[in-house]
Amino acid sequence: MNTDNSSDISKTSSEKSKTVQQYIEETPLWADGTPVGSAQMTAMQWRIWWLASAGKFFGGLIIFMTGVALPLLAKRFDLDAVGYGLVSSVTLFGLFVGATALGGLADRYGRKRMFLIEMVVLTLFLVVVSLAPNLIVLLLALFGIGVALGCDYPTAHLIISESIPSRHRGRMVLGAFSFQAVGAFSGIGISLGVLTVFEDLSAWRWMYAVAILPAFAILVARFFVVESAQWLVKSGNVEHARLSLSRLLKREPVYPTDISLSEHDGKPVTGSTFASFRELIRNKETRRATILASVPWFLQDISTFGVGIFTPLVLSGLFDKTTTQHKGSIAHVVADDIQAAQGAALVDWMLVVGVLLAILLSDRVGRIKLQIFGFIGAAIGLFIGVMAPSFGANNEMIVVLCGLMLFNFMTNLGPNSQTYLIAGEVFPTEHRAVGAGLAASIGKLGAMSTAFVFPIFLASVGREALLSVLVVTSLLGAVVTWLYRIETAGINLEEVDLKELEQTSDPQAL
Hints:
Main location: membrane
Family: Belongs to the major facilitator superfamily. Sugar transporter (TC 2.A.1.1) family.
CATH architecture: Up-down Bundle
Pfam family, one: Sugar_tr
Keywords: Membrane, Transmembrane, Transmembrane helix, Transport
Membrane topology: Multi-pass membrane protein
């Protein structure tokens, strides 16, 4: 009798148990049983989103600010083309290292811990770079900044996507990602403001110094977010997951009043990060996901970061044709840099427009369609830049600007935003940070390569030849996306753990 009752109680308890994502997905019902379309985001969910968005903002701010600072740094440290490449690529090399070495650790030590560590590293090295006495210290500091920003690629995505309903995931993750474009545009604006106040070579120090206090404020605020309950369950800490989920879903009136979590199949992450890499490649289901997440990201970063960082440099060369000041003087360098930054600001605002449209369309149209369409559109924009001289010297500047604006719009509508989104969605929870970090690292390998090679090639073969190569890489990105397509729009992230990833791809949807 007692045994039967215990069995009934156990069965009832089991039936009431839900997964973390099931609790997050819950929506209210009207009295007649009609479901409400969505539940209001909680204060904690919004806090996580804003603080993750801030990390993306700093990424765009610092990287694009470096593009404006390059002419000043070149004059201050007497850089040649190789020196240009070193300064511009060292942050991207840090991104490469950070995404793998630090970002992947979020699978073992938790999303929140790495979320904090990256901001500690970023704040510290912002101080160092603004005070750098020589080129060696500057390079080391820029590398450290890159490590922090690289760690943010997987952790920011995962701490958002594992805390919100699947139906909101695409636009919320891309909404945070859009702050990279806002940061890029702000970096150009701040740099212009600094250049107008400090009309000398020291202006680059103040550009980086402006970001120190905001970075420290974000660091403090990140202490007050919760750990991912999905990760805690996968790590075997169900009670901590229950407490974390209750804080995440705290609302008025209180709901749910009691949380009973069902455990997922899976094991806590053990072994080295590189062992996880080998498992991703060896496993048939995750190999396809790894190729889709990594190769298009690599191809799009070749063009996105090359064009983004060196837009002021490309425009500087065009503005320089009409400059009347004495070449080589500090006044000439500063004035030329201001003109180039103004041109970059005109071009870079299309980054914001592109990612805003991506937010609206990603969940409706799908990640794969937008990525392919964006790659093709970016190639067209670059091809316009290639053809600019054929329109005559008087129109060359206008045509180049139009081509770069189209490129920025299409790349943020498609591959720049969708590769980031896809990389955090196609891997199971226990390998999600490692997989997303690996994809980001491979992407930054492309960015780092082009950042180092771009100024050398620009000086030796010219703008048109270089942009022609980027046209080819963009079209290749569209082909790879098509061949390895996996559509993740609307997929519950817990379902990614439970079924073959290849089945989530719908060839007919394209």
